[in-house]
Design goal:
By secondary structure, the protein is mainly alpha-helical. About 70% of the residues lie in helices and about 0% in strands. The protein has two domains: about 50 residues, Orthogonal Bundle (Arc Repressor Mutant, subunit A), CATH 1.10.10; about 130 residues, Tetracycline Repressor, domain 2, CATH 1.10.357. The protein contains ten helices and no strands.
Length: about 210
Amino acid sequence: MPRTRILDDDTVLDHAIALFWRRGYAGTSIRDVSEASGLGAAALYHRFGDKDGLFVEALRRYAEEGPAERMARFSALADPLAAVSGFLHELADLSISDPERRGCFLVNTALDGAATVPGARGLARARLDEMKDFFRAQVCRAEAAGRLSPDADPDALAESLLACALAMRVLARIDPDPGRLRRLVDAALAPLLPREARPPHRPPSLSGKGAPAP
């Protein structure tokens, strides 16, 4: 039986995050959270309503402690391009360094858990929209400073940067190859760099057609 403990909601949610993140919505029960936290199932129902309510609040806390904190920290940088680069490189580092290959709880939810919990679906969509807004804000700052091409499209660039972030976190669950993740970041950042600073274009190898590889 779970032992009686007085725990604040954030502590309980941290236990729930760890379980939902690793096992997913379907693979985690209220009993699992009760056993992990030491808080009785009845107390969990009283605080969060049901499993769906617990899942949504766990996701909300994760988003506030992870993505939202990261966006606020990098938004505070004076250099908007350094903010974008730092954000993406930090995501790559997180993806590479996680031995459990959990990816991002928010992205995982957008892909599977959100289909089960309507409240989580809306929350995941809103948080990912905030990430796109973060990228757009940095691109607009760089554009206003004259650091981008006059024909730069902030919306298209923001969507491309968001796509890179999502791709990295999905790949983190499958095969977080460091080289591949770094290349994704470089490709996403290339349109933000002066032309002379962009990585050189490498034509595809012809080694498979009898020509020597470069």
